Amino acid sequence: MSEPTDFPLHLPDMPLHDPYVVADAETGLYHLFTSNLDLSGTPGAGTMVYRSPNLRDWSDPVPVFLTADEQEPWARHGAWAPEVHRWNGRWYLFTTLHDTDAPLPVPRPGEYGTPFPVANYRRSTVVAVADDLTGPYRMLKPEKPILPAELMTLDGTLYVDDAGKPWMVYANEWLQRIDGTVEAFPLNDALDAVAGDPVVLFRGSDASWLSRELPAGVPHQIAPYVTDGPQLYRAPGGALVCLWSTYEKNRLTAGGIDGDYVQTWAVSPSGRLEGPWQQREPLVRADSGHGMLFTAFDGTLMLILHRPFTNARGKLYEMAWHDDELKVARHRTDLDGD
């Protein structure tokens, strides 16, 4: 795919959800991956990319992965939360597909004080590969999910441990567990098969501030604990940080979840995936979340997330470390292009 020469868009112009940025030194461009939308020029479930030389001015989006291009994949819908990672000399796309024709069990009606509002079906993070950052990407295992098919393994991300072993870290969300979790499976070097037993990093209810923020009169046991969008990042002092998103002041209703989306985080001071993990207060509220950290070309640590949850746009924040504590330094509204 050729590099863009025109950058007519600014973040407020760019519909997106679950943004993921790769700062590519080879091209000198930031690549912002998000779910494919019709404005890419090619409709259908998949992934598209916006590109920018400066985080302010962005190209029109182009598709890099489409499920319609796969031969008989196990699922063709969804394509949520794309991430792109460099591994063994190639680029790997992680994105969540779903198959509404493969139902999964749901919690028993009334078990949590209200009829369960959503029908569960198979959702799993797939891995696709390309030689170029802008694709085209092709699924490694189109015939079936890489992780166990009975698990709803959403928002998968790649983590490589100190021994060089790859893991898929994912959210096993409230739709299957009510108290959502962040978990991880070790993968083989080809990233197309499980290579060991899973590890549970933490549960949504481990964030004590969530219970503190419950509305008056909402019993603790019927409030779902959502876990979305994990991303692992190494702090300067060696601690391991996990970004994740959830809803605060939430409650389960007949229509789904009623609450406020937030960007939060946890830290493993030992630096180990197994933890123990300590939950921190949210980084950004105001119906914001599913963020990720990246380093800008000038060395600045940046956070990108989407806000609001519906009709979302990208928001950029400059971040700072205080020892192994992550802080928001400032909201980079100057990059909105207004």
Automatic annotation (TrEMBL):
Gene3D superfamilies on file: Glycosyl hydrolase domain, family 43 (2.115.10.20)
Species this protein is from: Glycomyces mayteni
This protein's name: Glycoside hydrolase family 43 protein
Pfam family, one: Glyco_hydro_43
PANTHER family: BETA-XYLOSIDASE, SECRETED PROTEIN
UniProt signal peptide: none
Molecular function in Gene Ontology: hydrolase activity
Stated family: Belongs to the glycosyl hydrolase 43 family.
Key words, A-Z: Glycosidase, Hydrolase
